[in-house]
Amino acid sequence: MDKSKMHVSPVFIARNIQADHADLIHDVAYDHYGRRLATCSSDQSVKVWDLDEKGSWKLKSSWKSHSGSVWKVTWAHPEFGQILATCSFDRTAVVWEEIVDERNQSYWLKRVTLVDSRTSLTDIRFAPKHLGLMLVTCASDGHMRIYEAPDIMNLTQWTMRDEFDCKMSCSSITWNQSRIHPPMLAVGSDDSNNSAPKVLIYEYNDRVRKWSKIDVVASATDPVYDLTFAPYMGRSYHLLGIASKNVQIVTIKPIQTQYEQQNLNGSQLPQKIEIRTVAQFDDHTGQVWRVSWNITGTILASSGDDGTVRLWKANYLDNWKALGVLNDSPDGQHDESRDDK
Fold first, then answer.
1. How far is the CA of 149 from the CAs of 112, 133, 210, 273, in angstroms?
2. Which domains does the chain have, with CATH numbers?
3. Model pTM above 0.90
């Protein structure tokens, strides 16, 4: 047999981390360089892990961060320092900064608590570096809020720049990473009470200094629990991964590179976009909880109720296919039996 024509499945090895949280872990977040890891849990704590020279994760810090379950944790770009933000069932968002003392001991200080929400905050994300030190939160009552630190040397002061109502329960939120397009946000909803689209696209109009909803992802009608824009690598479109009852991959293509029309008041109209669902996978055979892109935006990872992490990649014809599977077996071995399904 010609070995050059044999199908060789990629091999992935899972490394276990004994997190020692006392309750369910809700989120795991890598820093910009992938050498630090933050976890948060229903035990109300946050833990930070560092990757050592042997490739093992070592616990660096652990502290109680909220008075309720901590749903999400996110890192700011390291240009602004070692900064984390968390959001919780206790209706607050908190910004934390790592301080290293003269004995080279590190600890995390609470810099600010944001208390504007009246319901559980379900997601929090820092903006891309080129937008400055900004973050967005979304809540179960449908409200999104955007905050900015006017002085990055004083993290105790944050200004709420925008607040708007999505008219449905919000579960997740993500920033578009592109520098050359207007700022864009996608927000997902886990509302199961209606059949309306569960992913909304918002864009910022710099002339009128206002965010507005410009479109919806019509194919996403089931509750959404996570979504994320791929890193922008100069494509003519944006890539969005969606975790719902299945995995969806969506392209968002601007069809006006600049605002060309004006309303009667002379202000610019929102940019027009074309949204296409280019892939949909039901391989998890159940709820999909998380999606995440690699650094080049070419591989999407998803995790679901079937206890697997699945990888998806497009070929040269832009057809998305399964790349590999990691299961939850005790030895962390790759399950090749499902690769070609």
1. 11, 6, 18, 30
2. 24-165 (2.130.10.10)
3. no
